[in-house]
Design goal:
about 190 residues, alpha+beta, 2 domains, two-stranded antiparallel sheet, about 25% strand
Length: about 190
């Protein structure tokens, strides 16, 4: 049911965004028309109603498709996701405190699950914490570019590694909700579905 409400909200948001983008496009085309009255822009904007409907439909379709791409998909309903780069995604279900990454496993063969993390300089740093798994180590650093995973037994080991490599320390780690809001708020919230 949550996914249905979210879908309806997103469709309304897409319609509003498409209307705004269509008006901006019409304004830009009219400015071009002022300098050249026999341009291609003049021909397509001569029937304003047709232009608004056609461009609004095209923009709506583009925004809807964008919503399902790697960089545009933020989840539906009770499922949330944050793209962190190189095809990796931190996921969360039911807005619990836990985030997880499907395609990344620890040295003991378990999927990474964490309550705090941060991505900086194409590196993911986080704790290993789960409500149903017990990990051999407590923290990790994952290089998204080289796909190299380093695990740490203690907070001090992680902090020492972070200071040597100019990365955030354990004190700078954030919850899934904080990371989600930081990533999806701002211009992404206002300009994209």
């Amino acid at each position: 049911m949550e996914a249905l409400f979210h879908l309806v909200f997103v469709l309304i948001k897409i319609a509003i965004l498409a209307g705004i983008y269509t008006m901006m496009l019409l304004f830009i085309f009219r400015q071009v028309n002022k300098s050249n009255t026999e341009s291609w822009f003049q021909k397509i904007t001569s029937n304003k109603r047709k232009f608004r409907l056609t461009s609004g439909a095209i923009i709506s379709i583009i925004l809807f498709i964008w919503m399902f791409t790697y960089w545009g998909n933020h989840g539906f309903g009770d499922f949330a996701r944050i793209p962190i780069g190189n095809g990796y995604v931190v996921k969360n279900i039911n807005w619990t405190e836990y985030g997880y990454i499907d395609q990344l496993k620890t040295s003991d063969g378990k999927e990474i699950e964490m309550t705090e993390f941060i991505v900086k300089n194409r590196k993911l740093i986080g704790n290993l914490d789960s409500w149903f798994e017990i990990f051999n180590n407590k923290y990790f650093a994952f290089d998204l570019k080289t796909e190299k995973l380093i695990e740490f037994d203690s907070k001090s080991e992680l902090d020492e590694f972070a200071k040597r490599n100019n990365l955030p320390t354990s004190e700078e780690l954030k919850s899934f909700k904080e990371n989600y809001q930081e990533h999806w708020n701002g211009w992404r919230f206002w300009l994209l579905p």
